[in-house]
Protein 1
Amino acid sequence: MLSPHLGVVAVLRQAPGPEADPRQGDLAFEADELRLEREALRARLGEIERRFDEIERSRHMMRSVPTLSAEEEDRRLRAAVWSGLDFDLALVEDRSRQLEALPAARARRAARADSDDDLRRRLEELDELARLEGARAQMQGPSAPYQAAVDERALSLRRRLAPFQAATAEDALAVSTHEIAVLAAVEPPEGPPTALALVLPVSQAIAAGWRERGDDLCARFAWRVVAALAGVLRDVGAADAPIRYDRLGDCLTIQAWLGDSELKTDLKERLSDAFDQIHQQAQELQRAQLDLFLAWVEPSVIAGGPPPGTGGRRP
C-alpha cells in the first residue's frame, strides 16, 4: 500500500498540466538570435584588437626610423633615375654593336652552309622542285600521284631547311626585350611652359659629329627624337623655338626655349603621342628588342644632373 505522500505524488503526475505559453517559442528564437549576434560581436572585437595591435607596432617602428629630409629624398630620386638612365645608355650602345655584327655573323653562317655538302644539295633540290612546280602549273591536268609526290618532297625539304634559312635571314637580335626611357621635363611644371628638356640614353658625342657619325642604332635613335621634337614644336606653334644640344652626365640633352612662343596646344600630350609613334615605327629599336617610352620628371631631376657618385649598371 502506498504511503499517503507517494499517493499524492502519483495523482499529481497523472493530472493534466497547464497549457504551454505560446510566447516561449518566440523567446527561444530571440534568444538564439541574440546568442549568434553576441558571438559575431566577439569575433569583430577580436579583429579590432588585432588591427589595433598592428597599428601600434607600425607607429612604434615609424617613430624608431628617422624621417628623410626633402633634400635627401630628392637626392635618392635623382640617383635612382640617373642610374637607370646610365644603364639604358650602356644597353643601347651594346645593342648597337650587336646589330652591327649581324651581317658578318650571317655571312659566316652562309659560308659554313656553303661548305656543307648536304645543305648545298638540299638547296639545289629545293630549286629543282620549284622549277618542277612551275612546270606542273603549266601542264594540262597533271596526275594526282605526281602532284602529291612533288608536294610531299618539297614540304620535307622545307622543314629540314627551316632552321638554316631562319639563321641566315635573321634580322633581329636574339635577346630579351628591355625598356629604355627618355627623360622629359618642362619649366614651370604647371601652366604654360617656357622651356623643355629631353635627356636621351645616347652619347652626347652624336650631336658633336652628326655628319661623321655612322648610321648605327644610337644615331638613328637620336635622329628620330630630333625629328619628332621638330614636328611637335611646329604643331604647337613653336617652330622657331631655339634648340640647344648639350650634355648631362654621359647623355645627350636637347633643350628648347619656349618663352617667346605662344603655344596653341598641349605640349606634353603632343610629345607623348610623338614618342608613341617612334615606339611603333622605329624598326631599328624593334630589331634591337628595345621598347621606348617617355618619362616625365620634375625639372630638378634633370637640372641637377646626376648626383655625385652615381654609377649606372652595365649589361
Protein 2
Amino acid sequence: MDEDKLSSERLTPMERALLHYVERLTSALEQSASQFEVLEQRSTGLIAERQRLLSDCMMSLIASQASFMTGFRAFAKRSGGSALIPPEMEEAFRLLETAGEAMTAMPSK
C-alpha cells in the first residue's frame, strides 16, 4: 500500500485526477456487475417458475380434455357405435394423446 502511495505521489495532478476517475469507474463497474448478477438470477428464477406453472397448466388442460374425450367416446359408443363419432373428434383425440405424450416426455428442470 505504501508503494501505491509513493507512486501516486510521483504523479502529476492531472494523472492523479485521471487515476481517481479510473478507480471510480472500476468501482462503478464492479457494483453494476454485482447488481446485474442479482437481476439475472432473479429473472432466471422467475422465468423458470413461469415455465413450470405453464407446464403444470398444460398438463391439467390435457388431462381435462382427455377425460372429456374419453367420456364423449364412451357416450357415443353407447348411443349407437363409433359411426356417431365424427372423424374430426377422433383426430382431436389422437392429437390430444400426442400432446400428452410430448408433455410427459419433457424433462423437468
Protein 3
Amino acid sequence: MTVTTQNLLKYLPIDDKIRQETLVKLAGYSPQQKISLDETLWLMVHELLMVQSQYEFELALLEIEKGKGEMDNQLYPRIKEQVYMRFLRDIAENKEAESIEDIRLSLQKLIKKNTGKQTVKKTN
C-alpha cells in the first residue's frame, strides 16, 4: 500500500486550518519542500504510534495488575504491532472512503451532464 502525503495529513491530529492550507498549497511545493514535509509527517506518525503504544502498554500492565491478564516478554512488541496495524487499517479505510467519494462525485457529474443533454420521451 502506498501512503501519500495527503493520507498522512488527513490521518494526523493536525489543526484543520493548517491541514487544509497545506493540502491546497501542496501541488505548488518544490521537490525539496515536499521531501521536508514528508519527513516531518513521518516523524509525527512515528511519535504518535510510539505514544499510543506506550499508553496501551500501560493500560495492559494495569489490567495485569488487576489479575486480568498475564505478563510475557512479547507484550510490548505485540501492542506495538497492533497499534501499527491499526494505523495501516485507518489509512487504508481513509483511502477507500476517498475513492468511494471520488466515484460518487464523478457519477453525480456524469448524471448532471447527461440529464441536461437528454430529453425524456413519454409513452402512452
